[in-house]
Structures are given as structure tokens and as C-alpha cells.
Design goal:
With 75 residues, this protein is an alpha+beta fold. The chain is built from three helices and three strands. The chain has one domain: K homology (KH) domain (GMP Synthetase, Chain A, domain 3, 2-Layer Sandwich). The longest helix is centred in the middle third of the chain and has 11 residues.
Amino acid sequence: MYAERKGWDVGELEVDVEMGYEGPVPNSFEVGVKLPAHLDEEQRRRLLVIATKCPVHKVLAGEGHVRVIERLEES
């Protein structure tokens, strides 16, 4: 939605999540966001910032017991 509003042609995006466990409950999430190579550094940075504002991310990161790590990748 953000890219659309900005008029950015981002094509397809891919998100990969790996969970880390300490006991039966996940205690960390590593989130990989694959963005097309044609995006400039500012676009990539902004899209990662926006991704961290999703409601699920806020709930997980806001608990304090869960570590959320974001990384950008090129597709």
C-alpha cells in the first residue's frame, strides 16, 4: 500500500520468517524482506521501516520477550 501511494513499481515482494525457539515457544523471529534490485537505497530503507510498523510486528516486538530481526535481500 505504501509503495502504491508513492507510485513505486516494486513488483513482487517476498517475506521469509525464521523462528527461533527456547523451549516450546518461539522467542525470536528473523524476517527477511526480498525487494527487487532496481529499487534505490532510500526506497529499500523506507519499505523496511514501513514493514516494521505492521500490527503483527508491533505485537511481537512490543512484548519485550521476543526478538525480531529484519533484513533486506534482493530478489
